[in-house]
Amino acid sequence: MTEVEVVQLLVSPAHRCAGRPSEGAAAAPADELVSEVEVRRGLGLVGDRYFARPAHRNAAVTIMAAESLPLDIDPSGDLRQTRRNILLRGIDIDSCVGSTIALDSGTGPVTFAVNRPARPCAWMDVTLGPGAQRALRGKGGVRCTPLSDGVITLGTATFRVVGEPGPGGTGHQL
Known about the structure:
Elements: E1 2-9, E2 36-40, E3 44-45, E4 61-65, E5 86-89, E6 100-104, E7 110-117, H1 123-127, H2 132-135, E8 142-146, E9 150-153, E10 155-163
Parallel strand pairs: 4-5
Antiparallel strand pairs: 1-5, 1-10, 2-3, 2-9, 4-8, 6-7, 6-10, 7-8
């Protein structure tokens, strides 16, 4: 078990990065940064744009390590531009692809299947700054499926891998 910090939580009801990156992103709703998120098994984060969308069930929640951000990004500032739902400090989340993980911020563990990398796109150069897409290759976070219901809050949390990759790269319970 590892102690981590939940640095930021993002629940965005709408896509902000649509069309061409050269046209810029839409303005961010003031309420998309939250102090807690409600997680629903197999559906995602309540209120998020990907919640209960069949095409996104295996990628409904994105998690990223704050340590992966380009060095010229202020980690104490508004990091919603990463468009990742959960920003953690203290764990190399990118190394957990194929595993099952548990995150507990004090209300009980919430488990996730870490399905695949969240590859940075050209929008990162627009929202974070020039060169961000390249700087985040291989460390843009992960796309997950929630395996349990629960609540995640900002602040100190515990993180653990509860299932290692099995045959075919899928996580399984230990």
